[in-house]
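Hey, I'm writing a tutorial for new members on how sequence and structure tokens pair up, and I'd like a real worked example in the thread rather than a made-up one. If someone can provide the structure for the chain below, I'll link this post from the tutorial.
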Amino acid sequence: MPFSTRFIDGLETGLPLGKILCVGRNYAEHAKELNNPVPASPLLFIKPSTSAVELEEPIERQFSHGDVHFETEIALLIGERMSQVSADEAMSGVVGVGLALDLTLRDVQSQLKEKGHPWERAKAFDGACPLSRFVQVEGGDVDWEAVTFHLDINGRRQQSGKTSDMLFTLPALLEEMTRTFTLEPGDVILTGTPSGVGQLPREAVLDLSLSLGLKVGTQTR
């Protein structure tokens, strides 16, 4: 059955799942832990829609391909067509915020990197992108510099991230992406992972949490 994006109330978003556009090495500490250079511009790659699965469902590991690593990331659901947008207007096209696991066949990726080959075999396989349900937002509702998220494995904190630590801010990412890729309603953006990535353990419980920096307005009389 094809994957459908949903809001946290369980209702379908009504948007067909499109491409899943990802950014690598968007946190300096994550680049450091994998001995990768910090990029001067966003490192982009794509997962196909067939990689998406429900985050709430048990994860099927690809044991025959070596180590499977987890990378927890903020996911943005795009609600309108965007091409060549500026950073100032970019977030107005976001209609949902959630979390994703960018599952990576690390042994396969290392082999591909050594040969200078693309990463798709390590990043784009079926089931490589467990996606949560999305919190419905309008671009102006959220302080995009104050979004935080966590991953706990078997009750132990494994990853913590906040948008203020990103090398490239969310508006800057969308601006850069739309210089090359036209974003369509239903596309999903994965925004990079903080340090703490590791091998996906067997028989483990993964708990992911997301906190949005919601803006609060006041009125005077």
